[in-house]
Amino acid sequence: MARPRADASAAPTQDRLLQAGEAAFAVRGFADTRLEDVAKECGITRPSLLYHFATKEELYAAVVHRAFERLATALLAAMSIGGTFVERVDAVSHGFLAFVRGNPHFSPLLLRELLDGRGPGRQLILDAVTPVIDALERFLVEDGGEVVRPGLPARAAILQLAMGTLVRAASGPLEKPLWGEGEDLPTMARIVFLRDPGVTR
Question: Full-prediction pTM beyond 0.90?
């Protein structure tokens, strides 16, 4: 018999499961995360969790897709604001930074998957990350014109800045000793992407 689909009234439970799943996968990775622990964190039983997500792979896929959908929404909104290209570059860097800081499990979830590779997430991550990078690359190449640094390897630059930000956010108590005070992504984005980092228009 087919498992019934969850209706709208179950959304709060699904949201709690996604949040608990994201935290568990970020801390323990896919292989070492148990559905029993995720269910317990939400105050439900494992069979109740299975009503919403039939397998651990299904929960993990939902967690990954949810995280990157939220990231893509934030970045696309920043790229679409009114104003100059430089103002939009600033908005994108601030938006990415705000997303990473506001979603503390995102960085370790992504970095753990890149390093571990024991779960089903590599293809999920690739499928989720690629459209975001594609959109940022198009933004720099197509909208930047003469403002963008000549010869900029846009995709590599995007990944370098993003990975530095993710590693910093995931470093916990090592962050301040290693990086010091203050957030450097907006400044670094200007230095890396723009012909004139001090330009205001």
Answer: no
Residue 176: give its domain's CATH number: 1.10.357.10
pLDDT digit string, tens, across residues 89-103: 999 999 999 999 999
Residue 91: inside a domain: yes
Q: Using pLDDT thresholds of 50, 70 and 90, give the confidence band for residue 201.
A: low
Listing DSSP states for the chain in one string gives: -PPPPP-GGGHHHHHHHHHHHHHHHHHHHHHH--HHHHHHHTTS-HHHHHHH-SSHHHHHHHHHHHHHHHHHHHHHHHHTSSS-HHHHHHHHHHHHHHHHHH-TTHHHHHHHHHHH--SSHHHHHHHHHHHHHHHHHHHHHHH-GGGBPTT--HHHHHHHHHHHHHHHHHTGGGHHHHH-SS--HHHHHHHHHBSSTT---
